[in-house]
Amino acid sequence: MGRVGTRTRTSLKRISNKVRFAAQVGGVLFRLGSHGIGYTWRVILNQLKFTGLQALPFLTFISAAISALIVIQTLSQASKVGFEGIIGMVFVAAVIRELGPLMTAVVVIGRSGTAIAAELGTNQVMEEITALETMGIDPLHYVVFPRLVGVTLATMCLVVYFDVVAILFGFLAAQMTTSMSLGTYLTYIIDQATIADLWVTGLKGMLFGAIIALLPSFHGLVVRGAPTDVPKATTRAVVECLALVFLASAIVSVLFYY
Hints:
- The protein is mostly helical.
- The chain has one domain (38-257).
- The chain is 86% helix and 0% strand.
- It contains ten helices and no strands.
- It has helices spanning 2-27, 32-35, 38-51, 56-78, 86-125, 128-134, 139-178, 182-192, 195-221, 229-257.
- Helix 5 (86-125) runs antiparallel to helix 10 (229-257) and helix 7 (139-178) packs across helix 9 (195-221).
- The longest helix is centred in the middle third of the chain and has 40 residues, at 86-125.
- It starts with a helix and ends with a helix.
């Protein structure tokens, strides 16, 4: 029982530290006027380029492959009983609501989450973060907040991009499988999609982006000691990001659809 209690207190302390860190980063928004935003915008733009633009080729491949497989598997069975219309329900539920945001988050975690944790961890080991604090510069303002904004905006845009590419390649797969016309295909999807689906997609993109920016930043900044601690911090950040992203996705889906 003693070990369980100790582990529970340790886990709660870690969670509270991360929540406090997130609140401190969010508080930077209210201090932008006094600190200036020039450098912040440059970092945000660089983060948008790395997280968003440079991820497009791989995300396109993932979106095309997943959407084509789902459409082919669904229509290959539904067409046997003349129920092709089910493709709209399956596509909206599987791709737009769930797989689009989740697969986008996985790609962003693999690229940007690892990069942020490794970069900030290295900066911490090299005492560059300490140097900023010595000069009176808030690391949360100049290091973490721009990445939060950049990754969040990029992830939201990437989720929308994923869905658009999925719809396009889903049609190509439907056309090859059953010779379905574009008008019929879009009608099936539009009839099933709702305003709530758009809200859920945007909300998940925003939540996932914030998670992917904050957790790796936290783990990078708490690195102490040798450079060998950086890979460990990066691994912890990735694992926690994946777990929290899937948990957040489940919670949002339950709140909106059940």
